[in-house]
């Protein structure tokens, strides 16, 4: 399975990946009449959301969703079947689908209760071509705790993720010391 597109969250003027969720209430397209289609192998669920925090409150900013051919053609020709929260979609190629329907500047309150792990600065050497990348594979990680969409607490978890990496990575150093290097036919 290809590495999957993560949802994002704009926090303190930076875009973070959502690398962990423990709670209820994030946006679910099917609860709003959408039927996401498989767009690419990088997004099996067929959609991606970008959230933002405004005045300590969680909002859905953007929905990118893979739609069927008929719907793509309708959007392309200015005849979208539906708006969402008063916003009409436009098309753009994205990792979610080629092209995807984009609903932007939604500003829809998300009454999420629980915690989110936000991650930034992915460590490329830790990439695994499978599923969503866990939080410990990022240099910067914050845990945000919400109650009904309101940000109650922010905790920097970057040091804890570095400790987790230290516990895991010594096992992979064996590979770095002993892997074979292809030098070509002439040995160079």
List keywords for this structure.
188 residues, mainly beta, ten-stranded mixed β-sheet, 36% strand
From the alpha carbons, calculate the radius of gyration and give it in angstroms: 20 Å
Number of strands: 10
Helix content: 10-25%
Question: N- to C-terminal separation?
Answer: 35 Å
Basic shape:
globular
Main beta-sheet annotation: 10 strands, mixed
Question: In percent, how much strand structure appears in the residues?
Answer: 35-45%
Could you please describe the fold and organization of this structure?
- There is one protein chain.
- The chain is 13% helix and 36% strand.
- Strands 1, 2, 3, 4, 5, 6, 7, 8, 9 and 10 form a 10-stranded mixed beta sheet that branches.
- The protein has 3 helices and 10 strands, in the order ββββαββββββαα.
- A hairpin with a 7-residue loop joins strand 5 and strand 6.
- It is mainly beta and 188 residues long.
Compose a concise summary of this entry.
This protein is mainly β.
Topology:
Layout (H helix, E strand, L loop, with lengths): L7 E4 L2 E11 L22 E8 L2 E9 L3 H8 L13 E3 L7 E4 L4 E2 L3 E10 L15 E10 L2 E7 L1 H11 L4 H6 L10
Parallel strand pairs: 1-3
Antiparallel strand pairs: 1-2, 2-8, 3-4, 4-6, 4-7, 5-6, 8-9, 9-10
């Amino acid at each position: 399975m290809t590495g999957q597109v993560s949802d994002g969250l704009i926090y303190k003027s930076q875009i973070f990946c959502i690398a962990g969720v423990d709670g209820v209430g994030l946006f679910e397209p099917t609860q709003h009449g959408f039927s996401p289609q498989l767009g690419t192998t990088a997004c099996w669920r067929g959609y991606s959301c970008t959230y933002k925090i405004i005045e300590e409150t969680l909002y859905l900013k953007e929905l990118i969703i893979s739609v069927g051919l008929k719907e793509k053609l309708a959007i392309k020709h200015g005849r979208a079947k539906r708006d969402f929260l008063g916003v009409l979609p436009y098309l753009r190629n994205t990792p979610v689908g080629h092209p995807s329907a984009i609903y932007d500047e939604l500003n829809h309150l998300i009454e999420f209760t629980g915690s989110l792990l936000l991650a930034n600065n992915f460590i490329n050497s830790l990439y695994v071509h499978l599923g969503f990348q866990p939080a410990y594979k990022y240099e910067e990680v914050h845990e945000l705790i919400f109650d009904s969409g309101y940000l109650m607490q922010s905790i920097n978890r970057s040091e804890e993720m570095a400790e987790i990496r230290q516990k895991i990575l010594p096992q992979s150093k064996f590979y770095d010391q002993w892997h074979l290097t292809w030098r070509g036919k002439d040995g160079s």
